[in-house]
Design goal:
The protein is built from nine helices and eight strands. The protein is of the alpha/beta class. The structure holds adenosine monophosphate and manganese (II) ion (3 copies).
Length: about 280
């Protein structure tokens, strides 16, 4: 089994269309694949059809942006019904707030002498609803403000730097409730990225589980390899299901390629065990 349950397409901030992403995953040896675009399920039909054509087991997914005590947390929903009303309506609200934030990001860049950010970011996507910092990052690279997308995030779009604006995403309990309403499993994405203290991380997990969250990413392209053991231990301690996913955004932009991560530690309960 080569499972990849976290990836992005052009339906959010990935570089490949859903079908092209699925074909690449299949070609790289992935045998079970979830598309988890940010706050949107619009790429799933195309991805599912492409997966059927090449014989790849496909899981419907989404990655929801959440604010928890002032920190942005990502919650992945796996094996969801993308047609569920509660989920769809929740995602509409989150996406609406993305467009308003994009105008504020552009104003912040403008104050630092960088004009044209809104249109510049929009030039990288068809659907303004899913505008993200990644699209601003691509605009900034294009204008020569940084060498690549990853280095943009050292100098722009993050706390204390031009283009950063605080933002209120969905509440943790709401995001988990939407995923559960859609019949899915809620998974904390890349827990090693949030810069939470150990007690805070435990409080986040306890709250997440009280709401019905059941999983955590252990092996992810967004963790350094030394973090795999750390979050495997957390999964054991809390009895959380473990997930594995590249968080692939596109060739050349992501450091981890589809299907190339190590396997989960064998004693963990994989989130896909009953699928
Ligand atoms: P947003 O949801 O609009 O705040 O955008 C978040 C997205 O920006 C993430 O999903 C990543 O794709 C990208 N991103 C954030 N931080 C970094 C980073 N340090 N390097 C590369 N991409 C990043
Ligand atoms: Mn992203
Ligand atoms: Mn994420
Ligand atoms: Mn992601």
């Amino acid at each position: 089994m080569n499972v990849d349950l976290h990836c992005h397409s052009t339906a959010s901030d990935g570089l490949l269309a859903p079908a092209a992403l699925v074909e690449r995953a299949h070609a790289r040896g992935v045998t079970m694949f979830a598309l988890t675009d940010h706050d949107v399920v619009g790429g799933l039909d195309e991805a599912r059809a492409a997966a059927r054509t090449c014989g790849l087991r496909f899981i419907d997914g989404v990655e929801i942006s959440v604010s928890w005590r002032g920190t942005t947390i990502h919650v992945v929903g796996l094996n969801i019904d993308p047609a569920n009303d509660a989920l769809r309506q929740g995602l509409v609200l989150v996406r609406g707030s993305r467009v308003r934030r994009a105008h504020r990001i552009a104003e912040s860049l403008e104050a630092a002498g960088i004009a044209g950010g809104f249109d510049g970011a929009m030039a990288h996507l068809e659907n303004p609803e899913i505008v993200s910092r990644t699209h601003f990052a691509r605009f900034l690279v294009e204008r020569g403000y940084a060498r690549d997308v990853r280095s943009v995030f050292h100098h722009y779009l993050v706390k204390g730097k031009p283009g950063y604006v605080p933002h209120e995403w969905a509440a943790l309990g709401d995001a988990v409730a939407w995923i559960l309403a859609a019949g899915g499993v809620a998974v904390i994405a890349h827990p090693g990225r949030y810069k939470l203290s150990r007690p805070e991380l435990r409080e986040l997990i306890a709250e997440f589980m009280q709401h019905g969250g059941a999983g955590i990413e252990v092996v992810t392209g967004s963790h350094a390899p030394e973090q795999y053991a750390e979050f495997a231990a957390i999964a054991r301690e809390f009895g959380l299901l473990a997930s594995r996913g590249s968080d692939f955004h596109g060739p050349g932009e992501s450091k981890v390629e589809l299907g190339s991560l190590p396997q989960l530690p064998a004693d963990l309960q994989p989130v896909w065990r009953d699928w």
